[in-house]
Write a structure and sequence with these properties.
The complex is a heterotrimer of chains A (about 300), B (about 260) and C (about 260).
Chain A (H helix, E strand, L loop, with lengths): L6 E10 L2 E11 L4 E5 L6 H8 L7 E6 L4 H10 L1 E4 L11 H11 L4 H14 L15 H12 L6 E5 L7 H16 L3 E6 L2 H7 L2 E6 L2 E6 L1 H8 L3 E6 L9 H4 L5 E4 L4 E5 L2 H10 L6 E6 L2 H9 L6
Parallel strand pairs in A: 3-7, 3-8, 5-6, 6-7
Antiparallel strand pairs in A: 1-2, 1-4, 8-9, 10-12, 10-13, 11-12
Helix pairs in contact in A: 3-4, 8-11
Chain B lengths: L13 H11 L4 H6 L2 H18 L2 E3 L2 E3 L1 H32 L2 H6 L5 H29 L11 H20 L7 H15 L11 H7 L3 H14 L5 H28 L2
Antiparallel strand pairs in B: 1-2
Helix pairs in contact in B: 1-6, 3-4, 3-6, 4-6, 4-7, 4-10, 6-7, 6-11, 7-10, 7-11, 10-11
Chain C lengths: L13 H36 L1 H9 L7 H32 L2 H6 L5 H29 L11 H21 L5 H17 L14 H4 L3 H14 L4 H31 L1
Classes of the chains: A alpha/beta (about 300), B mainly alpha (about 260), C mainly alpha (about 260).
């Protein structure tokens, strides 16, 4: 290996015609780490994912995965990667078992090995009872878990997950998160994109925040929050269509004020204190909420926009 | 721009794509088998009515029934149609609608393997179908020579040419409506390629244009085999089909790459 | 936003379903119209140069007509049958299963019956338009010899519906298109080949003729020939019409059941 990292990308650029989706990013990921790409839709996360999965070629810059160059050793790299794409792209007409069989064959695994791993993986993803069902009949959460089982078929050293829990109900999400923790304990390197900050906080040791094709911040989730936000946030709503008009009223109560279309955010050290001051000043919001700062606030601070617009 | 050194026409791994299709269509093996009946119906319908109406045809001093004349042309036509469906319609669905190939690309398979795999799959089907067609021809007495057995590789070559060509066409298709345009090309090819009547019925200049039709070349090749009439020009015909196949596969591979990994 | 006219069309809600199909068609018609115009021309031209030429040279007239004239009207019957098939099987399966467009329609004031009638009315519209064009093309080749030929567009429409109605019903209860292949291979293709389309009924041995007369397409073919040449007896032709009408009616009854089951259960 030329570098100590399991994956290293330098000055990565992806252009589609005139449109520049990824504008020169640098990433280095260590073995066993759980690494996240956080950003809104259209930030360039999926393009980045496809490049570091050795699927699409960067327009400019270099990538090394396992110390190998994807331009030369694409098949060898992909043999050691697991990919869970944003769209499940399962074979709907085939049974759960046959989906895994088929995928395993793409890796040239012998049928006997595929059979053993299928049993194991279906147990791991809690799909054993549905082994012979057509995929078409599975729920969204089950399909997602099957896609993860599929991605693990080749015992990958790195598992790459693109928006793993989008569209799932809370229960299905927690089950998925639990499975991902277990993989991490077993030493699998996880690379995750998400636009859910709670997911990023839960799963990632370290993450980068992406916006418009660039990395705007990098670090551990807690460290990012401490660096770019205050300890607590007060959310205020008023019965109005225009929250903008209140901006000046609140600057004196907080370190920083953000106005969103439907609410006002006060960034403070102690939320209860601040809320008391607001009430004392004779201001009566329709609703008020005190919470801890999250990655959402980091993103808002860095880009001036909300993650889920 | 960085370009990647790819195996030009795919690798051994393309067999995995073949396996995938076999698995997906496994539940439909009965349908595949029933394909045997289609040539039977067509040839039977010919011998019931048209043999008598058209009367014997004279080619190179020998008299043949109409069905004997048309059967190899129909074999060529069905090889063309089957190959076009297998390589335009189904891959279009996988490429643009169900996005099946996205999952394959995360594995050691390369884009060129996918293209070659689809062609191989079309050929497996063509092999079975051509075999049943030739058996029907023999059963109904529409084959005049034991060399009719050479129609088998001949029909497979035809399928190879049209499925590579079709796969290249498939990558240019934007929506289902574009299939009408495909039909617009396929139809005159089907009607005027000398499959239903001897090309000598055309004025000479028109015949010369038609000799560029790959379907005409295929029909003439297969007719030579089934009537047991050999000619050096048949090597030219086979080479023509082979060139179409290789060019088609090359274009298809490049285009697949452009679409799947832009 | 422009408001659509209110649903004051009384009970004719099906017109909205018809209109939806028309909207789709307006976006996508170009290719299909080109091929449906070109096909009859090319087909008949190829006959004139090729097989028709051979047959005239060897056997002379077929049932008092040149082979080209003999075949031309039946082309209308086979084409409208194929139109009925093509508009019914995959598009309906797509609408009830893949895109679920019919489910979306069923969430509006439209009832399953309205969706069915609108669909069939649309197929009939296309059947009529296609038949009209084909009649003109057939006339160009000189195959029309009687004023009865004015009924050809209606006959074509009838054939379209007679095939479309049961096939829509069948498609509405399908989950995959696997059965469609079987239907084509053992039903629709043999029907196309053996309905005395390409040669007269008399080509069959006597004991087979009553069986051929049970094939639905045969009745369409017989009607088009009778109308084009002005031959045939009124009672015979009425029998053919009745056969196709019954087929359409049974298809509609069946379709009402399968659509209701599919869209409301």
């Amino acid at each position: 290996m030329t570098s100590g990292h399991i994956l290293e990308a330098r000055n990565l650029v992806k252009r589609f015609g005139d449109f520049e989706a990824v504008k020169g990013i640098d990433v280095a990921i260590d073995r066993g780490e759980s690494f996240g790409f956080l950003g809104p839709n259209g930030a360039g996360k999926t393009s980045t994912m496809r490049m570091i999965s050795a699927i699409s070629q960067p327009t400019d810059g270099t990538i090394e995965i396992f110390g190998l160059d994807p331009r030369v050793d694409g098949p060898e790299i992909r043999r050691r990667l697991g990919v869970v794409p944003q769209e499940d792209s399962l074979e709907l007409e085939l049974s759960v078992k046959n989906n895994l069989l088929m995928y395993g064959r793409y890796f040239d695994l012998p049928r006997r090995v595929i059979r053993e791993r299928t049993t194991e993986l279906l147990e791991f993803t809690q799909l054993s009872e549905r082994a012979n069902d057509k995929v078409d009949n599975l729920s969204g959460g089950m399909k997602r878990r099957l896609t993860i089982a599929r991605g693990l078929m080749n015992r990958p050293e790195i598992l790459i997950l693109d928006e793993p829990t989008t569209g799932l109900d809370p229960q299905a999400r927690h089950l998925l998160w639990d499975r991902l923790y277990r993989l991490k304990r077993e030493g699998v390197t996880l690379i995750i994109t998400t636009h859910y900050m709670d997911e990023a906080e839960q799963l990632c040791d370290r993450l980068v925040v992406m916006d418009q094709g660039k990395i705007v911040a990098e670090g551990a989730p807690r460290a990012l929050i401490e660096r770019f936000s205050t300890r607590e946030v007060v959310e205020l709503r008023f019965a109005t269509d225009d929250h903008e008009q209140y901006f000046n009223q609140f600057t004196k109560f907080a370190d920083r004020v953000e106005v969103l279309p439907d609410r006002i955010l006060l960034y403070v050290n102690d939320g209860d204190d601040a809320l008391r001051d607001v009430h004392a000043a004779g201001i009566a919001p329709a609703s008020a909420l005190v919470r801890r700062s999250s990655l959402e606030d980091v993103f808002l601070h860095l880009t001036g926009r909300s993650l889920t617009d | 721009m960085l370009t990647r050194a790819l195996p030009l026409f795919g690798s051994r791994r393309s067999v995995r794509v073949l396996e995938r299709n076999a698995l997906v269509y496994r539940s439909q093996w009965l349908m595949l088998l029933s394909g045997f009946f289609e040539p039977l119906f067509y040839l039977l319908s010919l011998s019931i009515g048209l043999n008598k109406l058209v009367g014997p045809l004279h080619i190179d001093g020998h008299a043949f029934s109409y069905a004997t004349f048309v059967a190899p042309g129909m074999l060529a036509t069905s090889a063309m149609n089957g190959a076009m469906i297998d390589s335009i319609f189904n891959p279009f669905f996988r490429l643009k609608i169900s996005r099946t190939y996205d999952a394959l690309l995360a594995t050691p398979l390369e884009v060129t393997d996918i293209a070659l795999g689809e062609v191989l799959w079309a050929l497996v089907r063509a092999t079975l179908y051509a075999a049943s067609f030739i058996i029907c021809m023999a059963l109904l007495g529409d084959a005049r020579s034991p060399w009719v057995i050479l129609c088998w590789p001949g029909a497979i070559l035809t399928s190879f040419a049209f499925s590579c060509f079709g796969l290249a066409v498939c990558t240019y298709i934007r929506s289902w409506q574009d299939f009408d345009l495909v039909a617009l090309v396929q139809m005159p090819l089907f009607l005027f390629s000398g499959t239903f009547f001897p090309i000598t019925l055309y004025p000479r200049w028109l015949g010369a244009i038609i000799s560029f039709s790959p379907l005409y070349q295929s029909a003439a090749l297969l007719r030579g085999f089934s009537l047991g009439q050999f000619d050096w020009i048949m090597i030219m015909r086979a080479s023509y089909l082979l060139v179409i196949a290789l060019v088609g596969l090359y274009v298809a591979s490049r285009r697949f790459q452009k679409i799947l990994t832009p | 936003m422009a408001r659509l006219p209110d649903t004051k069309v009384g009970n004719a809600r099906w017109i909205r379903s018809w209109w939806a199909h028309e909207l789709f068609f307006k976006q996508t018609w170009r290719g299909s119209v080109a091929s449906s115009l070109l096909f009859p021309f090319l087909f008949l031209a190829s006959l004139e140069i090729g097989v028709g030429h051979l047959i005239t040279a060897h056997s002379g007239l077929v049932e008092g007509q040149t082979y080209l004239h003999f075949i031309a009207p039946s082309l209308l019957a086979t084409t409208t049958m194929q139109l009925g098939e093509g508009e019914s099987l995959w598009p309906v399966l797509a609408s009830v299963k893949w895109t679920r467009g019919y489910h979306a329609a069923a969430a509006t004031p439209l009832a399953p019956d309205d969706i069915l009638y609108g669909k069939l009315a649309w197929v009939a519209t296309r059947g009529f338009a296609t038949s009209f064009v084909y009649t003109l093309v057939i006339a160009c080749f000189g195959a029309l010899q009687s004023w009865w030929c004015l009924t050809l567009p209606l006959i074509g429409t009838l054939v379209t519906i007679a095939f479309s109605a049961p096939l829509v019903a069948f498609a509405a209860r399908s989950d995959t298109d696997a059965s469609f292949t079987a239907l084509y291979r053992f039903g629709l293709v043999p029907m196309f080949l053996f309905s005395a389309t390409f040669y007269p009924l008399s080509a069959y041995p006597g004991y087979l003729r009553p069986i051929v007369q049970l094939i639905p397409l045969y009745h369409g073919v017989a009607l088009t020939r009778a109308a084009a040449f002005g031959q045939g007896t009124l009672s015979n032709e009425l029998a053919h019409v009745t056969f196709l009408l019954v087929m359409a009616a049974l298809g509609i009854v069946w379709g009402r059941r399968t659509m209701r089951r599919r869209l409301t259960d």
